[in-house]
Amino acid sequence: MVRKQSIHAFLxxxxxxxxxxxxxxIRKARQLLSDRCDAIKREQDRSPSGGEGTVRLQVRVCSDxxxxxxxxxxxxxxxxxxxxxxSYLMILGTFATVLEENKNARLxxxxxxxxALIASLAAPLVDSIRLRxxxxxxxxxxxxxxxxxxxxxxxxxxxxxxxxxxxxxVGPVVVSHFEKDVPEKEIFALIPDYADESELDEFESFLxxxxxxxxEEENAGIDWDAIYPPLKSVADAMAAQREQWAEERNQLCxxxxxxxxxxxxxxxxxxxxxxxxxxxxxxxxxxxxxxxPAGGNVSGxxxxxxxxxxxxxxxxxxxxxxxxxxxxxxxxxxxxxxxxFNSTAKNATATGNITKVTTKPTVKPNxxxxxxxxxxxxxxxxxxxxxxxxxxxxxSTKTITPTPTPxxxxxxxxxxxxxxxxFGPDNTKLQKPTKALIAISFLGAYxxxxxxxxTQFIKDFNNYSNTLDISTNVNYxxxxxxxxxFRSGEALSQINPDLVVFSxxxxxxxxxxxxxxxxxxxxxxxxxxxxxxxxVLRAILYDLGFMGESAKYSDSLFYTDTTKGNKLxxxxxxxxxxxxxxxxxxxxxxSQTKAIVNP
Length: 599
Hints:
By secondary structure, this protein is mainly α. It has three domains: 2-108, no CATH class; 113-251, no CATH class; 411-597, Collagenase (Catalytic Domain). Helices cover 50% and strands 6% of the residues. Helix 5 (115-133) packs across helix 6.
């Protein structure tokens, strides 16, 4: 225990600049501490009673600090023997990191709160979590939901704060209602991550200006009136204990002070001086002659001292330097110095046309979503190559196109992408087929291109889905589980608005891409090329539960820009695999899904 306090004291003295430690040298710190120990011992010897308790404790602490310096030197040499470049600062940083990592693990045991007080807060929290999670009884999901409630409580009420200290207190009790015998170590390890994640989600919601109606839906099931009173009581009890600890720490800091009791004749201890490596005038005894520093002067490398005779010329030298700087700038801007960059700038000029594409979100929060069409068209043959003016043969130069490296996505990236594309503006729960086998049908003015597209889609989907298969026997001209009816744009505009469940249309022309009703999806048969492929696939995937979009991956089929993406990418297929795995089930809320895909 004494050695741990010595480590804390050494780090504190170093951070405050009382002692100086260099990467490869600790002798200054050891010498300073040794001098202080000698001075305190002399003061103890001069005392008639052998020194008060405070002085005796200072002697002990100072000796422990000197011993810790010896230990640091031993660790430094051991690291050197391993062939590693050793550093005292690295060793101190390691101690500081370990102490910080263990802070949360020790924190829960520091509070002495009545179990009945914690239980009174846990009870309404458990009721709210059960109501929000439904049938989900996983303790990690419950703990994540607890962190979400804490973040929203802090957003709703300015005081008291539902902070991580309180989460560490109430977390194990809440988890015990969902699963017994969960080690507290696991709970304490997850709480900081869940709390930080929940706070970031709330901040992101603020930046995205989430509509008030959606925020109220997110808070559904949370009984704030039942949570606030017991939480206030717990916060008050913890605040009272923090104040008590603060008083105890102040007393302990007084014991660790290395300032020697001064006599009336001793000068005051000077404060540290900045500049270079920290330097300090250390008063170690009261026996120094008047005008002399008591006990000597311990200093590091504070940099060269400027003679007084030179100080008067410093403004003149600074002025000359500024004039030379202006002259150099004038030469550079005159063009002589800049000429060396001309060839590089010319070579860096790109040839060809650059078209700026303005992207607008595809989906709005209302049921009718409009999108701005892409204004960029590719016209083959519009650029005529100039005849070659050299005698080099075309075959003498070969262009090697590198093979693109497949992109690997992490589990968290795939989970976040699924949350984006599975939850749209109109669904707060997952809506996907519950049957093991479904059939898709095409009606109306479909083309061979549509049939080929559907065949490939069914193959890809079945390869990645573990819980749902799409029949390869497509129904043409008869309804199926998912029915696409290809009609002209004019026919789509005449559909009764009362029958429309969801729709996406062009912002400028008002032409619909597809319209979802209760029994089928109407697709605009006037669409051509990649735009037709994109919205045929999006219409099918909408009925498969993918009702949202993403602005993160520009090549994704679900990208918000309608001018990009007409096929499923790797991360799209991985999201489908996650959606139709065994963990993600129909009817889950976004928070429940998030707890599963990003545990």
